[in-house]
């Protein structure tokens, strides 16, 4: 997909400037703070529920056997905590509505 | 943390802003993310993660109760991949 087709913090800051009336500095800071607050909650082991969009949850994964794909050497994948995202029914419905029948035609 | 808790935390960070502005900012950000993703536009937030759509081809499934074959149409499902900073921060060993 083309680079111009990607939503980034810069575009979100522009939207806050246009629609909320923040100045450029405030808009940029607010976007940064939004993602930082979500990271802080997850870092503290607290899941994040954003109704209408989706939930971020934490999963503790046990150690499992792995392999270096290049050398074939066996190396354990250590136990770790990971973030998972589950889209809300509303977001899934929006995707379904907009993407219906679009495969190979995009 | 819920959406309203997120709004409260953002409002507390910016005491000079009207509380309503934090609420509106969260709404604008989430609406833009949902709109982009549903239109097939990828979202990339450095240090946080990326969102895109994964294609699921049509398949023949089974109704687990009746055992009857059912056609499951193709679809796109939202997918999130955590960024490097996010992965490292949630996995801090203490």
UniProtKB/TrEMBL annotation, chain A:
GO cellular component: cytosol
Alphabetical list of Pfam families matching this protein: Bac_DNA_binding
Spans through the membrane: none
Classification via CDD domains: IHF_A
Keywords recorded for this protein, A-Z: DNA recombination, DNA-binding, Transcription, Transcription regulation, Translation regulation
UniProt entry tagged with the keyword Transcription regulation: yes
Residue segments, region Disordered: 53-75
Gene3D superfamilies given in the database record: IHF-like DNA-binding proteins
InterPro entries: Hist_DNA-bd, Histone-like_DNA-bd_CS, IHF-like_DNA-bd_dom_sf, IHF_alpha
Function: This protein is one of the two subunits of integration host factor, a specific DNA-binding protein that functions in genetic recombination as well as in transcriptional and translational control.
Protein name: Integration host factor subunit alpha
Species whose genome carries this gene: Nitrosovibrio tenuis
Gene coding for it: ihfA
TrEMBL record, chain B:
CDD domains: IHF_B
Cellular component per GO, a single term: cytosol
Alphabetical keyword list: DNA recombination, DNA-binding, Transcription, Transcription regulation, Translation regulation
GO biological processes: DNA recombination; regulation of DNA-templated transcription; regulation of translation
UniProt cross-references to InterPro entries, sorted A to Z: Hist_DNA-bd, IHF-like_DNA-bd_dom_sf, IHF_beta
GO molecular function, one term: structural constituent of chromatin
Family membership: Belongs to the bacterial histone-like protein family.
Function (record text): This protein is one of the two subunits of integration host factor, a specific DNA-binding protein that functions in genetic recombination as well as in transcriptional and translational control.
HAMAP family documented for this protein: IHF_beta
Description of how the protein assembles with itself and partners: Heterodimer of an alpha and a beta chain.
Protein name according to UniProt: Integration host factor subunit beta
Species: Nitrosovibrio tenuis
Gene that encodes it: ihfB
């Amino acid at each position: 997909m083309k680079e111009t087709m990607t939503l980034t913090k810069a575009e979100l800051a522009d939207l806050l400037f246009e629609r909320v009336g923040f100045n450029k500095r405030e808009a940029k800071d607010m976007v940064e703070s939004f993602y930082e607050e979500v990271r802080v909650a997850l870092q503290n082991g607290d899941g994040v529920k954003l109704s209408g969009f989706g939930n971020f949850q934490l999963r503790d994964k046990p150690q499992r056997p792995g392999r270096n794909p290049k050398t074939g050497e066996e190396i354990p994948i250590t136990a770790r905590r990971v973030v998972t995202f589950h889209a809300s029914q509303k977001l899934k419905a929006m995707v379904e509505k907009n993407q219906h029948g679009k495969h190979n035609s995009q | 943390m819920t959406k309203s808790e997120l709004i409260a935390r953002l409002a507390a960070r910016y005491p000079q802003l009207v509380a309503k502005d934090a609420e509106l900012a969260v709404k604008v950000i989430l609406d833009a993310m949902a709109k982009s993703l549903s239109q097939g536009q990828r979202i990339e937030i450095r240090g946080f993660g990326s969102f895109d759509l994964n294609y699921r081809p049509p398949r023949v499934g089974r109704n687990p109760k009746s055992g009857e074959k059912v056609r499951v149409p193709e679809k796109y499902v939202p997918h999130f991949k955590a960024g490097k900073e996010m992965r490292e921060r949630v996995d801090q060993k203490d």
